[in-house]
């Protein structure tokens, strides 16, 4: 029960109004130390309820201060506009019975309107790093008196190249009393470095291994011969699977556009999202998908980051993601909150080793599936290594390879001799090799 936490009665009233009864594991683990003011480093999978795990303690800190708003007291950084918008809604829902005001600053919106919002000095500021830095450089933003800094989806922010921006903004919050960093994965060296720089003696909470995907998600693979075969498989799946909403992931913008055109030609209601789409197009696509105007979204990873769409129950990997973490982020968009989902990866010969690596990373095997009538000739490698990857054939060593390997080179030929007299004829080397071309005499 949320009543077990030392939360202000107005926050508990909001929690009850929203029908939150049992805290999720991440909320049960993170809220108590966060209320104590501890710095936190939390790893929790997508859809685990981690937003409430930092929003409630943050609001609890601010609610007791009845001073007029003259400073921004809390800053929440997120990697995408969509995530920032969703977080703003959560903050507003939990603070509905308080006098705490929040504001949103992201790219793609009117800069002057945002500057006016900042002059009103919201208690809680939510935003994306790039646009916040623009306002900081323009003199519209003062973060010196921020008490709490939250970095949500920190691994995504680093993947998207925001490391320097995050450091700069964290440096502007030099007087902060608490920092909380949340991510869906344990990340790599860059994330560890960030943790070391921005957190002070943090409590580490590993709520799940990245390998623990949502339990309700079935994971399948279907082998394919080439991209054209994959397009036919996608069309069949969208026509025959039962789903409310679906996302098809590609690795490139060009492939996303090609697949989008193919599906539109097949009379599917579909939108495409990638890095070249502007904010207006992104908003339209997401709203139409949420409202049910379209059921299918074709997207690249960068464009789809931060999307939280209710009813999303089918994910198709047209291209296999390049890492296990990326796979987890894609698949984590379905099967949320106890729901069921289906994740299908289409595997050509050049996807197999990536797929095998991800299976090992997750410590599980994907279900193999064949679509009758669309079975291709490629059914996986003929020979497999113990790792599950394709066993390559040994290449024959050529002379160059032999030299590189330190092998003895062939003996040098003796210089050829040219007959002094007689009719022109082919010059033959003394070692009996093939005839050499003779130079024409100048007279000829």
From TrEMBL:
<keyword id="KW-0347">Helicase</keyword>
<keyword id="KW-0378">Hydrolase</keyword>
<dbReference type="Pfam" id="PF00271">
    <property type="entry name" value="Helicase_C"/>
</dbReference>
<feature type="region of interest" description="Disordered">
    <location>
        <begin position="377"/>
        <end position="444"/>
    </location>
</feature>
<protein>
    <submittedName>
        <fullName>Superfamily II DNA and RNA helicase</fullName>
    </submittedName>
</protein>
<dbReference type="Pfam" id="PF00270">
    <property type="entry name" value="DEAD"/>
</dbReference>
<dbReference type="InterPro" id="IPR027417">
    <property type="entry name" value="P-loop_NTPase"/>
</dbReference>
<dbReference type="InterPro" id="IPR001650">
    <property type="entry name" value="Helicase_C-like"/>
</dbReference>
<dbReference type="InterPro" id="IPR000629">
    <property type="entry name" value="RNA-helicase_DEAD-box_CS"/>
</dbReference>
<feature type="domain" description="Helicase C-terminal">
    <location>
        <begin position="232"/>
        <end position="385"/>
    </location>
</feature>
<dbReference type="GO" id="GO:0016787">
    <property type="term" value="F:hydrolase activity"/>
</dbReference>
<dbReference type="GO" id="GO:0005524">
    <property type="term" value="F:ATP binding"/>
</dbReference>
<dbReference type="InterPro" id="IPR044742">
    <property type="entry name" value="DEAD/DEAH_RhlB"/>
</dbReference>
<dbReference type="GO" id="GO:0003676">
    <property type="term" value="F:nucleic acid binding"/>
</dbReference>
<keyword id="KW-0547">Nucleotide-binding</keyword>
<feature type="short sequence motif" description="Q motif">
    <location>
        <begin position="1"/>
        <end position="28"/>
    </location>
</feature>
<dbReference type="InterPro" id="IPR050079">
    <property type="entry name" value="DEAD_box_RNA_helicase"/>
</dbReference>
<dbReference type="InterPro" id="IPR011545">
    <property type="entry name" value="DEAD/DEAH_box_helicase_dom"/>
</dbReference>
<feature type="domain" description="DEAD-box RNA helicase Q">
    <location>
        <begin position="1"/>
        <end position="28"/>
    </location>
</feature>
<keyword id="KW-0067">ATP-binding</keyword>
<dbReference type="GO" id="GO:0003724">
    <property type="term" value="F:RNA helicase activity"/>
</dbReference>
<feature type="domain" description="Helicase ATP-binding">
    <location>
        <begin position="31"/>
        <end position="204"/>
    </location>
</feature>
<dbReference type="GO" id="GO:0005829">
    <property type="term" value="C:cytosol"/>
</dbReference>
<comment type="similarity">
    <text>Belongs to the DEAD box helicase family.</text>
</comment>
<dbReference type="InterPro" id="IPR014001">
    <property type="entry name" value="Helicase_ATP-bd"/>
</dbReference>
<dbReference type="InterPro" id="IPR014014">
    <property type="entry name" value="RNA_helicase_DEAD_Q_motif"/>
</dbReference>
């Amino acid at each position: 029960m949320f009543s077990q936490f030392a939360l202000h009665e107005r926050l508990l009233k909001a929690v009850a109004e929203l029908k939150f009864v049992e805290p999720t594991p991440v909320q049960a683990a993170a809220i108590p130390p966060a209320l104590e003011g501890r710095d936190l480093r939390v790893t929790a999978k997508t859809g685990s309820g981690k937003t409430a795990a930092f929003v409630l303690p943050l609001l609890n800190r601010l609610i007791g201060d009845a001073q007029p708003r003259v400073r921004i007291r809390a800053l929440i950084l997120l990697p995408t506009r969509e995530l920032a918008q969703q977080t703003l809604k959560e903050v507003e829902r939990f603070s509905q019975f308080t006098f705490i005001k929040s504001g949103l600053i992201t790219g793609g919106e009117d800069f002057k309107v945002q500057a006016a919002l900042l002059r009103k000095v919201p208690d809680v500021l939510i935003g994306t790093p790039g646009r916040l830095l623009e306002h900081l450089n323009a003199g519209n933003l003062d973060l010196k008196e921020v008490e709490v800094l939250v970095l949500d989806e920190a691994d995504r922010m680093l993947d998207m190249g925001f490391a320097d921006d995050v450091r700069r903004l964290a440096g502007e919050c030099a007087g902060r009393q608490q920092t909380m960093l949340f991510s869906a994965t344990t990340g790599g060296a860059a994330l560890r470095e960030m943790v070391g720089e921005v957190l002070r003696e943090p409590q580490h909470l590993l709520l799940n291994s990245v390998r623990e995907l949502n339990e309700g998600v079935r994971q399948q693979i279907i082998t394919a011969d080439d991209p054209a075969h994959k397009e036919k498989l996608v069309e069949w799946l969208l026509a025959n699977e039962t789903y409310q909403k679906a996302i098809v992931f590609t690795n490139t913008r060009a492939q996303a556009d090609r697949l989008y055109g193919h599906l539109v030609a097949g009379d599917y209601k579909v939108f495409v999202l990638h890095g070249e789409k502007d904010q207006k197009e992104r908003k339209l696509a997401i709203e139409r998908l949420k409202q049910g105007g379209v059921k299918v979204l074709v997207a690249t990873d960068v464009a789809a980051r931060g999307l939280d769409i209710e009813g999303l129950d089918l994910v198709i990997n047209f291209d296999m993601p390049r890492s296990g973490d990326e796979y987890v982020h894609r698949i984590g968009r379905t099967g949320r909150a106890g729901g069921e989902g289906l994740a299908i990866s289409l595997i050509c010969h050049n996807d197999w080793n990536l797929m095998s690596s991800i299976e090992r990373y997750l410590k599980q095997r994907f279900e193999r599936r064949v679509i009758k009538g669309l079975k291709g000739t490629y059914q996986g490698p003929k020979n497999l290594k113990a790792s599950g990857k394709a066993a390559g054939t040994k290449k024959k060593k050529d002379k160059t390879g032999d030299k590189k390997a330190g092998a003895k080179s062939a003996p040098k030929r003796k210089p050829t001799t040219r007959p002094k007299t007689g009719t022109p004829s082919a010059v033959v080397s003394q070692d009996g090799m093939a005839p050499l071309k003779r130079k024409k005499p100048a007279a000829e």
